[in-house]
Amino acid sequence: MKTKKNPLLKSWRMAPLWVIFTFVFVVSCHERAFWDPETKNPHTLSYEETAPGTFVGEYRGAKWQLSLPNSVIWNSLPQKYLLLYAHGIVDPVPYEPVKLPDDAIEGTSVEDILKGNGFGYASTSYRDNGLVVLEAVEDMKNLADLTRLFFRVHPDYSAPDFLFIGGPSEGGLVTIKTIEKYPSLFDGAISICAPIGDFQKQLQYNGDFHVLFNYFFGADLLAAGFDLGNPKDGVDPAIMGKWKEGKEGDLQKKIISLMTDHPERVFQLLNTVKATVDFYNPIAVGTAVLELLRFNIMMTNDVRIRMKGVPYNNKNTVYSGSLDDETLNAEVQRIDEPDYHQVRNSIRKYETSGKLINMPLVTIHTTGDYIIPYWHDNLYASKIFPAKNSYLHKRIEVDNFGHSTIFLENIAEALLFLIGSVNSVSEVQMDEMEY
Known about the structure:
The protein has helices at residues 7-14, 17-20, 37-40, 71-76, 110-115, 133-153, 170-181, 199-223, 237-243, 250-261, 263-273, 282-307, 325-331, 340-348, 375-382, 408-432, and strands at 47-51, 54-59, 62-67, 81-85, 104-105, 108-109, 120-124, 162-168, 188-192, 361-368, 393-401. The protein is an alpha/beta fold. The protein has 2 domains: 7-195 and 351-432, Alpha/Beta hydrolase fold, catalytic domain (Rossmann fold, 3-Layer(aba) Sandwich), CATH 3.40.50; 199-346, no CATH class. The chain has a 9-stranded mixed β-sheet with strand order 1-2-3-7-4-8-9-10-11, sandwiched between helices. A two-stranded antiparallel ribbon has the order 5-6. The longest helix has 26 residues, at 282-307. The termini are far apart. The model is unreliable at 1-35 and 425-435 (pLDDT under 50).
């Protein structure tokens, strides 16, 4: 990740956020209406304290964690904020186990960033890995219920006044889908570098990279005994295993060697797929290719299973950006599955509606994101409904290359916006709540 210095960051680090926000006058904690009958039962709350203020448990196949500042500090805060963290996509089981996230920003864990500034932090592993968006929405809802139950049965900690949700990448999509389905559960949200604008277009982007990579490098890899599969037929699990060996394994070594020997092909590949990459930095270019390939190799099978078919069609796509577009368009693999239109019904379940109901939302996106392109943020902003609620949406544009390569000051700015918005929003929510 690139580093970036900002004078705002120093001042933000110098004072806890709760001190910065003491000017905000807010209403007290309100009850929520969306209790799951089973989750509401105190006997379902099973956990252990793994460290002072850190509580870990399991529920419905997902691990969950609640991490709070020292109880004396927490209880003395003028207002208490708890953020539920939705993590990004993880390689499918058995290539990666289901586990709690340990994500970091500029070398500091998300948990420590929040907890060190007087916020509470909660997270869940989700019940499965891979493209688990729909299930993760329910896991985040369960997490909200479990944490509220924790404060009811645990006498040492006062309940939070406000509940936020946020996350990067797939977790950013999970965030938006969760507040759309359960708007009364949360007071604000942060979505970071997420495919929230057009999920079908994102799948097309990934599929295009797969077939184009095969066009430029597939023959050489086949000669070396490696077949990376394709969006139609999937990927051999043996190749997925070889990919997990990393840059020291034979597969990634071969790919890196081919890119080193044929930089002109790398340029054509990224230029044709329209990836936003720092072409003046060879290491960044190679990293972009490997990170894009990771999705194709590790997620293609999982996506096909969850979509109940092949969610990709390039029958009529006209590619441009290579040194010989005519030959490329004539020879690149074309995929046109007869069930594609039925599969699109599955894809629609992953699309966002843009519907905001009294919910302040911050979207953060790097302009040079080659995994989930910046155009998602523009598309999402264009479909916010109702239009009068567009003032609830704050966009933070981060001028940087890479996926989710944001900075601490971006998170500080997002939290400031949420905290500054919840007073007026909460009064409206209070009128709509069931007690």
